[in-house]
Amino acid sequence: MEQENIKASQPLDWYDEELKNIDISKAEVIRRQFFSHMKDCMVTIRPNGIQFNTTCISRFEGVTHILMMVDWERNWFIIKPCDPEYKDGQRWCTIKDNERKPRLITGKPASERIYKRLGWCLGKMYKICGTPAIQLDSQDELIMVFEFKDAEDYMLTKKSRLSAGVDDKEINAEDLTKLEDYEKQLEIERQERKQAKEKGRGIKKGQKKGHFPEEWNDSMGVSFDQYKARVEFPHLPANSQEAVSMGMSFLEEEKRDE
What we know:
Elements: E1 28-30, E2 42-46, E3 49-52, H1 54-59, E4 65-71, E5 76-81, E6 90-91, E7 93-96, E8 99-102, E9 105-106, H2 108-118, E10 124-135, E11 138-147, E12 152-155, H3 158-163, H4 173-198, E13 221-223, H5 224-228, H6 240-245, E14 249-250
Antiparallel strand pairs: 1-13, 2-3, 2-10, 3-9, 4-5, 4-6, 4-14, 5-11, 7-8, 10-11, 10-12
């Protein structure tokens, strides 16, 4: 059955037992990030650019260009489909055999501003799950909102940092030590796989592990009261002049790489 055909709540006229009324307002809604979210709409922000996953691109049928915006008051990163001729539009995919594939939108100046504003470590990349929404003034237009506070961080290897143009001098000593320890662990795992292969055994390569925000350590999520409180998404601007007047900023690439 398709998801849109499943009712959010089921009628109780068939239930012949007396039911208790209970209060669930303080129960915590478990965050989706604690489960597998590989099929969720995701954005990855690296020190040298921004990339969206295949699921996110597929959600916007036929779209090749997007506007990227930040709302610092709410700590939101927002994308909105746009026409290719929009001055601030960014091509977010490549097309091969009529299929749209993710591409890295190169833009170190944009990433630097995000990293600096949020206090992120330049030795890491950050992944965020997106939430579909619609504009208040355009009820038939889908947008996607990513909340910076929900970002998971993944350590970058020395090679990846160099590729992204990161100088290790820009990383504080504590974070740099963690990154070096991470690289040492990767080398140990590589040697273990090599030795296992020589002995005719196979060891599955470990997946990269993300780290959740520290404030999530002692909770499963937010209360149902908070969860059901729907936040209205603001009117989104159509151009950079309108964005500036509304206190938003467009993110532009360092170079156009069409």
